[in-house]
Amino acid sequence: MRAIIGAMGAICGVLFFPMIVLGDSLYVKCFRQVALRAQASSDSREIGTLKPGQVATLVGEEGEFYQVTLPSGTKGYVRKAFMTNQAPAETRVEEVEQKLVALEAQTQAQKQELVTLRAQQQELLTLRAKNAQLEAAQKDVETTASRQAELAAQLQARQSTLERDKRLSWFMAGAGVLLSGGVLGWMWGAARSRSRSGRLRM
Predict the structure, then answer these.
(1) 134, part of any domain
(2) Which one has a higher pLDDT value, 10 or 178?
(3) Where does 70-176 show beta strands of DSSP type E?
(4) What is the DSSP letter of 22?
(5) Are 34 and 71 in a shared domain?
(6) Which pTM was predicted?
(7) Residue at which a domain ends, from 38, 53, 87
(8) What is the secondary structure of 40-74 as a DSSP string?
(9) Mean pLDDT for the chain?
């Protein structure tokens, strides 16, 4: 039973009186100044004072005294009864306010980043639309070029046909002229032969 009570007492001590370890920040827990002494003794020479809310870093302990270092670098001893590792309400409020300011700044930065991301997204959408227009225009150009190539091929084929027909026409015309000349020559020769035959009979 005593062991259980002892364990419960230890747990409560840890919960309500947190253990102070080396490196912790210590604060004056009363509303008066506390003497900083050169040695761990109430009779030792006073080398400074700690004001309420002033922070000191724990570097050791000796009996009823903590050995601490001030932000200025001064090292000395203070009574444990006057010190705590719980920050004063004013300090905690300042820390909360600083955290709130940091969170607000972080929120503003995230909002700005979100605005930038939205602008970039809109720019990306615009670029995609322009790219789609360019692709469509390129397809139109390719289609037009293909049609023009087909028309050029058709025109070339038609021109070749016309040239062939022209050559054939010239050939037929020449052949007709030759044939006509031959027929006329034959007819003229036959007429002369008849004329001679008539003269001889007379």
Answers:
(1) yes
(2) 178
(3) 75-79, 83-84
(4) T
(5) yes
(6) 0.40
(7) 87
(8) SSTTSPEEEEE-TT-EEEEEEEETTEEEEE-TTS-
(9) 81
